[in-house]
Amino acid sequence: MKTVLIPDIGTDEAVEVIEVTVSVGDTIAKEDSLITLESEKASMEVPSSDAGVVKKILVKVGDKVTQGTPVLEIEEAAKADAPKTDVKVEQGSTRAPVPTASEQAINIPDIGSDDYVEVIEVAIKPGDEITKEQTLLTLESEKASMDVPSPVSGKVLSVAIKLNDKVKKGDLMATVSVTTEPTAGLEHRSTRAENHAEPVAATTHRELETEPLKIGGRTYASPSVRRLARELGVELTQVGGTGRKGRIQKLDLQNFVKRQLAGNAPASGGGLPVMPKVDFTKFGDVETKPLSRVKKLSATNLHRNWVNIPHVTQFDEADITDLEAFRKTQKERAEEKGYKLTPLVFLMKAVVSSLKQFPEFNSSLSADGQELIMKKYFHIGVAVDTPEGLVVPVIRDVDKKGIFDLAKELAEAGNKAREGSLKGRDMQGSSFTISSLGGIGGTAFTPIVNAPDVAILGVSRSEIKPVYQGKEFVPRLMLPLSLSYDHRVIDGAQAARFITYMSALLADLKRIML
Ligand code: CAO
Predict the structure, then answer these.
(1) Are 66 and 108 in the same domain?
(2) Which of 89, 440, 454, 462 has a C-alpha 20 to 30 A away from that of 261?
(3) Is the minimum distance from the CB of 484 to ligand 1 under 6 angstroms?
(4) CB-based contacts of 74-80 (< 8 A; 24+ apart in sequence)
(5) Rounded distance from Cα 401 to ligand 1 centre (Å)
(6) Is the CB of 109 under 6 A from ligand 1?
């Protein structure tokens, strides 16, 4: 057994794990990406130093790691060469004329390698006013992308580097007329002051040359673009990249925001009213906590869905007295195998039967809103509550699976969600979503449609209620259902038929088991 450690990531500071890209049981090759890290200045993928089978994952999303932190335990495959961490040496760098004594030279900082690295974005031009820490350019090697921030504020006099140049530590980037005191530790020479930018974390972001950029898939963007996207609340998977290999550039992001504002602004102009900034300390003691990455991501999605989709929620109650009696007879069988048989698996089956009966509920609206894309598959998203926030793993082909298989898959997906080890693809491709709060409580709620789905079923806690059956009130176990739907696709009558059909199914054990 071998423990894979975090390699030198170019900084001693702890960096956050934002994605775990492997699972226990995966067979990995040397240099396969294991996790993604993100600091203030860099995002980076950590490649495996060895090949083998993953036996244990020792980090989770949200953990802070440094060089030497154990990532995985693997059972080693055949001994392989050490990973290649160097970038290719290509042509020499472009050099500019030596600046005059009144000018401040800014050089390429220590980038964690002595080799030449390509300039993939130049963010300044002569005449620009720049501030300290502003990104001047972005570099990219075979395995790393990094922003180079300015160590000073001032006015750019000349730019010594152009797009696609190959540069290395010490090369002149730009000359600046400095308006603030340069930072301590700058090199000064007799004829000029030479100013090295702060070293940024060297990254190991390896790009898959053959994989085109996909909506919902992996996005390529420099740390500064990622930061800007976060500040603007833009999900990068929504933005088309026009850079090399689909890389999202600052201009792409700006154009995306402009388009969104133009599209969403009401006829009267003005867009959505902005929330006021409130100083809560005026009212008492407060503590400010950062939102988790999962919370920030789900906040963006939920807000987008809330403002774009005209929601209506239809309520009903299903009589699950017989179903519950049956579940209790089967519960132990599932527990012997190590998982729980909850009402949720029966609901998944009932949902699929209802989707077959009412196919519009198993569709998506095309991006231009002109067509309905009818799905022939039945992949059900299940909202899972985790300490980091809400995630929605997708259980595939529910129509083809029995209740015990579904219970097992649901338990595995829930565990992965709580460990933070779900991969992007585990959360994609749903055709309908269930959000069950039945294990917690409450009588009803109005879930937000999980676009591009067109409907979502909210489930609350079942309760014994008196139900009038012909001559008398009879105690029955009633399950509250809340069906939210996109009113552009589904009419109220259809929704009422769907939920009535589903309630009837749940009340009839024989039909549901078929
Ligand atoms: N009525 C009564 N009891 C219910 C119930 C219901 N509708 N649903 C579940 N229960 C019971 C279960 O049977 C279980 O009891 P036992 O252990 O005695 O069998 C208990 O409640 C706990 O269930 P659970 O929550 O662990 O399991 P689940 O399969 O019902 O749900 C999961 C799994 C992952 C969906 C759930 O853990 C979860 O995270 N729910 C929150 C989802 C959420 O946050 N949604 C809001 C999103 S915002 O739209």
Answers:
(1) no
(2) 454
(3) no
(4) 74/1, 74/2, 74/4, 74/28, 74/48, 74/50, 75/1, 75/2, 76/1, 76/2, 76/50, 76/51, 76/52, 77/27, 77/50, 77/51, 77/52, 77/53, 78/51, 80/30, 80/50, 80/51
(5) 20
(6) no
Are residues 336 and 233 located together in one domain of the fold? no
b/e for 465-485, b at 16 or more Cβ within 10 A? eeeeeeeeeeebbbbbbbbbb
246 lines ligand 1 (CB under 6 A): no
CATH of the domain at 432: 3.30.559.10
**Range of the structural domain that residue 362 is part of:** 295-513
Mutation test residue for ligand 1: of 330, 339, 344, the one with most atoms within 8 Å of CB: 344
Query: Within this chain, do residues 371 and 445 fall inside the same structural domain, yes or no?
Result: yes
Ligand 1 atom nearest 384 alpha carbon: 39
Residue 488 within a domain: yes
* CATH number (domain holding residue 242): 4.10.320.10
Residue nearest to atom 37 of ligand 1 (CA): 384
User: What CATH number corresponds to the domain at position 128?
Assistant: 2.40.50.100
Whether 199 lines ligand 1, by a CB cut-off of 6 Å, is no
Residues 222 and 371 in one domain: no
Q: Identify whether residues 325 and 207 lie together within a single domain.
A: no
Q: 205 catalytic, yes or no?
A: no
Residue 54 lies in a domain: yes
In the reported structure, the alpha carbon of residue 500 is separated from the centroid of ligand 1 by a whole-number distance in angstroms of: 22
Q: How much distance in Å is there from the Cα of 440 to the middle of ligand 1?
A: 6
pLDDT tens over the chain, length 514 residues: 888 888 888 778 888 888 777 888 888 888 777 887 877 667 777 888 888 888 989 998 888 999 889 998 998 875 434 443 333 323 333 334 444 445 788 988 887 777 888 888 888 988 998 888 888 888 877 666 788 888 888 899 999 998 888 888 888 899 988 875 443 333 333 333 344 444 333 333 322 222 222 323 456 777 778 778 877 888 787 787 777 667 787 888 888 888 777 665 544 555 678 788 899 999 999 999 999 989 998 999 999 999 999 999 999 999 999 999 999 999 999 999 889 999 999 999 999 999 999 999 999 999 888 999 999 999 999 999 999 999 999 999 999 999 999 999 999 999 999 999 999 899 999 999 999 999 999 999 999 999 999 999 999 999 999 999 999 999 999 999 999 999 999 999 999 999 999 999 999 988 877 6
Residues 480 and 396 in one domain: yes
**Which helix or strand (DSSP H or E) is residue 492 part of?**
helix 492-507
Q: Are residues 159 and 240 in the same domain?
A: no
| Among candidate residues 140, 165, 180, the one where a domain is terminated | 180
Ligand 1 midpoint to CA 85 (Å): 46
Domain final position from 37, 61, 76: 76
Which of 295, 342, 437 to probe ligand 1 with, by most ligand atoms within 8 A of CB?
342
Q: Which residue has the tokens 């899972």?
A: 384
Same domain, 408 and 502: yes
Flag whether 90 is in a domain: no
149 occurs within a structural domain: yes
Q: How many domains does the chain have?
A: 4
Q: Within a 10 A sphere around the Cβ of 99, how many other Cβ atoms? A: 22
DSSP summary character for residue 486: E
